[in-house]
Design goal:
Oligomer: single chain
Number of strands: 0
Shape: globular
Distance between the termini: 48 Å
Helix content: 55-70%
Order of helices and strands: HHHHHHHH
Radius of gyration: 18 Å
Largest sheet: none
Structural class: mainly alpha
Length: about 180
């Protein structure tokens, strides 16, 4: 019994250390990517043609292969079916209401940004798929919001557990996933 408690404490400490490393890495990510979006010429920058991104190409092909759907909830149901993730798991893990998954004729802004992001986390989507799915709900992750950059960091580094995401958000912005502004 004593050996078991020692192992439990060691695993908990390692987990805590890993969370702190996530926070440090996220803080650096914010410093590198944070952009002040202003209308003044001082903050204007040229847009360069981006290199081909395999994830973005795969995402574009996925949407094309599914008839280019544009309804958030319908796309979520396709992702759940293909990845064999149940709605109940996402509801329970991320504290969502089942109404987030109800297909509406016009889904534009029918859910809050944090709910859409939580669903993307629950589906374990990469950044390209997250960006495309959020867009169908009328949202985006910008470089002028620390909370958005933390979410982007989590997607790019495959950090999907709500507890981990909330820990990073709370430590760096004093907000949780549920408190992310739309």
């Amino acid at each position: 019994m004593i050996v078991l408690s020692i192992l439990f404490k060691r695993n908990k400490k390692t987990s805590r250390k890993k969370l702190e490393q996530f926070c440090t890495d996220a803080e650096i990510f914010i410093q590198v990517h944070y952009v002040r979006e202003k209308s003044s010429g001082k903050y204007a920058f040229n847009t360069l043609k981006l290199k081909t991104d395999p994830d973005r190409v795969e995402c574009k092909n996925w949407y094309a292969g599914h008839g280019n759907p544009d309804n958030f909830q319908e796309i979520v149901h396709l992702y759940m079916k293909e990845s064999n993730i149940s709605m109940e798991d996402i509801l329970q893990d991320y504290g969502l209401l089942s109404s987030c998954f109800t297909v509406h004729k016009n889904s534009f802004h029918s859910i809050e940004k944090w709910e859409a992001a939580a669903i993307c986390l629950g589906l374990n989507l990469n950044m390209a798929h997250t960006k495309a799915l959020l867009e169908t709900a009328g949202y985006a992750l910008t470089n002028s919001s620390e909370t958005d950059l933390i979410l982007r960091f989590c997607f790019e580094n495959h950090i999907y557990r709500r507890e981990d995401v909330d820990h990073i958000l709370k430590k760096l912005t004093d907000k949780t996933l549920e408190e992310i502004p739309s």
